[in-house]
Structures are given as C-alpha cells and as structure tokens.
Design brief:
The complex is a heterodimer. By secondary structure, chain A is of the alpha/beta class. Chain A has nine helices and 18 strands. By secondary structure, chain B is an alpha/beta fold. The chains are: A alpha/beta, B alpha/beta.
Chain lengths: 319, 264
C-alpha cells in the first residue's frame, strides 16, 4: 500500500473541513497518516481517525499558530525524512499553499496545484488540473517522491468510516530562524451571515451589476432565499466587494443547490469555482455570454430590474 | 522612518518586484476553436503585478531606494518590464532561455531566486498569483529558496525601519503579520491602484537598463520536470438549458426553477 499523507490544516484551534475532504480521497489511495499542527491538533486526531487516518502525527507548539508556513514546513520536512511518504495531499487554501510551496522547494520536488482529483496509476500518482483556462482538464503525473498535490476545496465529499487513529507525537524543534512572519493580531470582518461555502443558494454578482451600489439588491435576494452572496474576480479586483466573496479558481469553490450568476459573463476563472452547483441560473444582458451555455436557465434581461422583482416574488411566496 | 541599512549605492532600500507577461485578461478570445492558445493574442503586464509595482514605487517614494523588476519569459516580455519602468521602476532583469519553455513552478522559482539573490533586496514583492496560471506556488517557493520569511496575500503594507507589517487577507477578515526585513510579500490586486505611466516616464524608460540573463548565467540547470502532462481531455461540460428573453415572465420562470430545487 502506498503511504499517503494528509496535511490536516488547523485554524483557530479547529480542524478545517478540507482535511476531511482530503481524507475521503486519501484512504482510497493508500494507508493514510494525517499531520495536525498547532492548537487543537490532539483533539482533531480523533476526528481524523473516524475519517480513516491510521495514525495522526501531532504537535501543539504555539509556533504553528503564530508564524506563517515556516514552522509547519520544518515539521513536515523532518517527518518526511523519517517516513518517506509516497504522496502528500494539501488543500488548495491560502495557509496550506504557503506551507506546500515552501516544503516542495525545500525538498526540491515539483508539485501539482489547483487539482480537482487524484488517482493512482502505474505505481505513481496522476492528478487532474484545469488547463487552457478550464476548458480542458490535464492529467499530470507527479515525477517526484513524495508526490505533492494541492486539491481544491469541495472536490471530495467527507464521510466517516469509523476508526481510531494512533496518535503520535511529532518531535520537532522549531528554531527562532523559522519564527519570522508572526501573526500578531486577527481581525474578523465578516458578519453573521450564511457562509458562502456552506450556503444552499449562492447569488453572485459581476460587472453587469453596474457598480458596488447595486450589490445590496443581491443581499436582499440572498436574505429572502437564506443564501449567501458571491462575486466574480473582476468586481473583487475592482474593489467593489471584499475578496472573501470571490468565487472561482482563485477564490472559493462552491457547490450549492442553486447558483444564480447575475451580470457574470462566465470566464473560466469563475466557472471552475461554481460549475459543480446542482442548478445554475444566469441573468445577463448578453445572450452570447459563456455563462448562458452552462446555465440550466439563462435569462436575457436587465438584472437591476429582475433581481428586485424576484426578491419580492420570493418574499410573497414565503408568506 | 527609513530602513536602517544604508547601501553602497546610496539607496536606503532595495525592492525587487517580480513581474510576468500574461495573455491579456480583457481580450475576448482565450482559445482557438481547436483549443490552442491564440498565438497573436495580446500580451500584457499581469494586472496583479502592476499593483505590486505600484506598492514598490510607493514604498520607494516614502523610504527612498531602488525598485528592480525581475521577470522570466520570452524576449518580448521586455515589453512588460518596460511598462513597469515607465511607471517609475529603476531597472529590469529578464531571464530568458529556450530551455525555460514550459518551466514548472519550481524551475521558475529557482531561476528567479538565482537572479534575485545577488541583488540582496530588502523586500521582494510578488503578486499573490498570476492571471494566467493562478496557482500561486512560485512566491512561497521563492521565499524558501531565498531564505526569506513570507508575508502573503497582503492588502496593506507598512514599513518602519527594518520592520514590515502587512494586513494578510483571510476568509473572514485579515491578520496583522509582522517580520523583519529582508522579507518576501505577496500582494493582492486591491493593495494599490496602479498609476498610469506619464509621457515623461515612458521616455525615461527607454534608456533604463534591462539586463538579460540565461540559465547558464544564473548557474541553474533545467533538470527533470517535477510533473509531466499525460493527457488532456475536455472538461466536463454542463449542458445548456433554456435561454429566455425577459418579456416580463422571467421572474416566474426563475421562481419555478427555485421551487423545483426546493429552495423556496
């Protein structure tokens, strides 16, 4: 059996859901050890066990929570030397990207980033990645050992298999040389609204919304539907809405029951992050926009008129 | 406040900004009908890198020093560097070599590191990810190879002496992250509105140096690629559904779909 590692990202003492998504795939590929670093790692080990980890290597040094990437890269590199895994899976998230890039450069190995799936082939691993802006999917073979693959969130569905992981202390000393980029404060800006990634309905706005002043129209519809509001990269880059709302290859991946794309043309950068939605509705002035070719219902019209009317209709129906 | 290290050339701070030439994100056609990339497609300086250059220039204006643009690409990537020079950067370095065609993230990071190391910068500024590749792996690799701390996804940067502080964007807000220079930061597109090059800037850029380096100059070997493409297939396409003109019935149609999907 191949030795597969899952880097189980922790944040604020909590195991991240992406770790369990990776577990679901990892256990198909071999015997899985997970690595959990920082506050809450020991508690996370029990959950990882239930999801199929044979062993969980833990270390609760505060350096993992307080400093970016370097302490985690040190721990993984040290353990890698001893254990020689065949494959290391990371989530394609900001924190894990920082660690994976650093680790790969230190080991002198390539990595496959932004992957949607991984499978075993001819004694090695092949991962799929969007290619030509997402119109194609390339199968890439990892030539190195360990193979390092970063998988987009929501690519796999987490499920429990039952089981108990052996908890192993990961012995590593984090020197001052790795305690450099220090997180001195954490500031929360998000409101208590439905999380974009978990929302059953996502309403996203793009350039066709005309300007940031019109985004409250989407908020109102989201409130009526119990959903969340997302955005295209174009409007995030334009500064209309914060990055936390960005859906797409470099933003969040979502797969809600219903995705309503308003004034979004449907560049691959965006559709990679939402095309797994069950139902897609597009509202756009342009009948030729690429989003129309993938929508279950495409409405050609003025979003600024249709959205408020729809909000009113949903509210009326709920009464 | 100024950076503490005064250099031989009189600069107070040396800032390297990595830049990349990418297919124009605003040009309509990305692919030919056979899925090859349109050869004559417009190429531009990566819009994200323009923001990195702007941030570098603002730091230079506040603290003095020099802004050096480092890029890797074919010879025509000089145009991207030249654009940054016309915005006000001081000089450029282009790594270009036929052996670099199709370079992966690690080889790219190795080549960039070899070109940047002799400059001994106080600060390296990278975009969070490029517009075309969007995998964002080069900056952390580069930080590791240069032995620098990485302060990533910065939407705000402050330099005070040899201390650098950034606001690092997170899913629900931001973190304040601090380090001593030298350091590498990655910046978001929101960090600074890139300036337009003035006519004077464009004229001045013509005489600014762009040093060209090959792999042999850098002492970097291509080596075996970390990954190999085994095959390319069509992405799973969704079937188009109904496309309707809003003749006043659109809201009812949408409501039907929402009802079928059991969200209302």
């Amino acid at each position: 059996m191949a030795k597969v590692w899952v880097y189980a990202e922790m944040s604020g003492g909590k195991l991240q859901s992406t770790a369990l998504e990776l577990m679901a795939k990892a256990r198909e590929l071999g015997d899985v050890d997970a690595i959990a670093l920082g506050a809450g790692a020991r508690a996370a080990a029990a959950t990882l066990g239930k999801h199929g980890a044979k062993a969980v290597h833990v270390n609760e040094d505060t350096a993992f929570d307080d400093f970016i990437a370097e302490p985690a890269a040190d721990a993984l590199a040290a353990l890698q030397d001893q254990q020689q895994p065949d494959l290391i899976l990371f989530a394609f998230t900001p924190d894990s990207r920082d660690v994976a890039g650093r680790l790969a450069a230190r080991l002198g190995k390539g990595l496959i980033s932004n992957s949607g799936d991984v499978h075993a082939k001819d004694g090695g691993f092949v991962a799929t990645v969007p290619y030509f802006g997402g119109a194609k999917v390339a199968s890439m073979r990892a030539n190195g050992k360990p193979a390092i693959v970063l998988v987009r969130p929501k690519s796999f569905e987490a499920s429990e298999t039952g089981g108990t992981a052996e908890v192993k202390d990961l012995a590593v000393t984090i020197g001052d040389g790795s305690k450099r980029a220090k997180i001195v404060e954490r500031v929360a800006e998000a409101s208590e609204k439905v999380k974009l990634e978990d929302a059953k309905v996502v309403i996203s706005g793009g350039r066709g919304m005309g300007g940031p002043d019109n985004f409250p129209l989407l908020e109102a519809l989201a409130t009526a539907l119990g959903g969340a509001v997302g955005a295209s990269r174009a409007v995030v880059d334009a500064g209309w809405v914060p990055y936390s709302m960005q859906v797409g290859q470099t933003g969040k991946s979502v797969r809600p029951g219903v995705y309503i794309a308003v004034g979004i043309s449907g560049a691959m950068q965006h559709t990679v992050g939402m095309k797994a939605s069950k139902v897609i509705i597009a509202i756009n002035k342009d009948a030729e926009a690429p989003i129309m070719k993938m929508a279950d219902l495409g409405v050609v019209g003025d979003a600024l008129k249709i959205v408020p009317a729809l909000t009113a209709a949903v509210q009326a129906k709920k009464k | 406040m100024t950076l503490s290290r005064r250099r031989d050339n009189g600069c107070l701070v040396k800032i390297v900004v990595t830049v990349k030439q990418v297919p124009d994100p605003n040009s309509a056609t990305i692919l030919e009908s056979d899925y090859t990339i349109a050869r004559d497609r417009e190429v531009v300086l990566d819009p994200g890198d323009e923001c990195g250059i702007e941030e570098g220039l603002q730091l230079k204006e506040a603290h003095g020093g020099e802004v050096i643009l480092v890029s890797m690409g074919p010879e025509r990537a000089k145009d991207a560097i030249r654009k940054g020079l016309s915005m006000g950067a001081d000089r450029g370095v282009l790594i270009t070599d036929v052996q670099l065609a199709g370079a992966d993230a690690l080889l790219t990071a190795r080549a960039l590191a070899a070109a940047i190391k002799p400059e001994q910068p106080d600060l390296v500024i990278c975009g969070t990810e490029s517009y075309d590749g969007s995998t964002g792996m080069v900056p952390p690799m580069l930080a590791e190879l240069l032995g620098l701390p990485q302060l990533t996804i910065a939407k705000k940067v402050e330099v005070d002496g040899s201390n650098i502080k950034v606001h690092r964007q997170t899913a629900d807000g931001y973190q304040v992250v601090e380090a001593s220079t030298p350091a590498l930061i990655t910046v978001t597109a929101g960090i600074a509105e890139p300036r337009y090059a003035s006519l004077k800037g464009i004229m001045a850029a013509r005489s600014k140096e762009i040093k060209q380096l090959g792999l042999a100059d850098l002492g970097v070997e291509r080596g075996d690629p970390g990954e190999t493409i085994e095959g390319v297939a069509d992405a799973e396409a969704r079937k188009a559904g109904a496309i309707i003109q809003d003749d006043g019935t659109a809201v009812d149609r949408i409501l039907q779909v929402l009802t079928q999907a059991k969200v209302v």
